[in-house]
């Protein structure tokens, strides 16, 4: 079970000045080895070199599994070595024997929205249904277009009331910005991204049916 150790949003601290995407990535993993738990193999003591080799290899396998999962789910991921290790170590309250190896960001493809760009000028006035899945839930919306603008987005079904407040804020951003790639501005969560995909689905269907 995950245990919180630092309150707040510290995603940016796991990156560098040349990695601005880090602060918007929905998930940033930090791989840490604990020398206090990896100093023995059976009853035999490990040398520092052997311990580091085995630990680094294990991190590589874990990272590879993350890559495989992301590939199967249409997500993007990147392993990063540029980390302010001392700052992150202090933030995560790591012990002296704990060492940061790598970080790995997980998110949605940056060019996903460009590939599916929708021209509202090509969509006639009307109300269009759309849906998208997130985990076991199906998000359903009805998007109203008026004068070639997103006039209203009704949430038909989001599967759980726990997400309703966040959903309302996401929809307000869509209407204000007149586009669905709100993630680039607000760092939308995976659930919000699913709602955005439902809106995009409605607009895509509307564009195809004109």
Question: In words, what does this structure look like?
Answer:
It is a single chain. Helix 4 crosses helix 6 (190-209). This protein has 210 residues and is an alpha+beta fold. It is elongated, with a radius of gyration of 22 Å. The chain folds into two domains: 11-107, 3-Layer(aba) Sandwich (NADH Oxidase), CATH 3.40.109; 113-209, Sufe protein. Chain: A, CATH 3.90.1010. The chain has a three-stranded antiparallel β-sheet with strand order 1-5-4, with helices on one face. It has helices spanning 48-73, 85-91, 112-115, 164-177, 183-186, 190-209, and strands at residues 27-34, 40-41, 44-45, 76-80, 98-107, 126-134, 137-146, 149-157. The protein contains six helices and eight strands. It is 36% helix and 26% strand.
Mean pLDDT: 83
- Biggest beta sheet attributes: 3 strands, antiparallel
CATH topology of the largest domain: NADH Oxidase
Q: What is the tally of beta strands?
A: 8
Please give the count of helices.
6
Q: What CATH architecture of the largest domain do you see? A: 3-Layer(aba) Sandwich
Low-confidence region ranges: 182-187
Strand order of the largest sheet: 1-5-4
What shape does the CA trace take?
elongated
End-to-end Cα distance: 50 Å
Structural class: alpha+beta
Percent range for β-strand residues: 25-35%
- Full CATH superfamily name of the largest domain: NADH Oxidase
Q: How would you spell out the order of helices and strands? A: EEEHEHEHEEEHHH
Q: What is the count of distinct domains?
A: 2
Radius of gyration: 22 Å
Question: What portion of residues is helical?
Answer: 25-40%
CATH class of the largest domain: Alpha Beta
